[in-house]
Amino acid sequence: MILRSARKIFRFFIGAAVAASACAGMGTAAIAAEEPYYKGKTIRFIVGFSPGGGHDLYTRLIAQQIGKYIPGNPHVLVQNMPGGGSLIAANYIYKIAKPDGLTIGKWASGLIRQQFMGRKDIEFDSREFGWVGAPGQDHLVCTITKASGFNSWREVMASPPGKPLIIGGLAPGTSLSDDPRLLHGALGFPMTLVEGYKGSSDVRRAAEQGEVHGGCWGWDSVRVTWKDALESKSAQVLVQVMPQKHKDLPSVPTAFEFAKTDEARQLLEIAANGGRLLRNYAMAPGTPKELLETVRKAFSATMRDSEFVAAAEKVRLEVDPLTGEEVEKLVNDLFKTPPPIVEKLKGILLPK
Question: What is the CATH number of domain 42-137+278-349?
Answer without folding.
Answer: 3.40.190.150
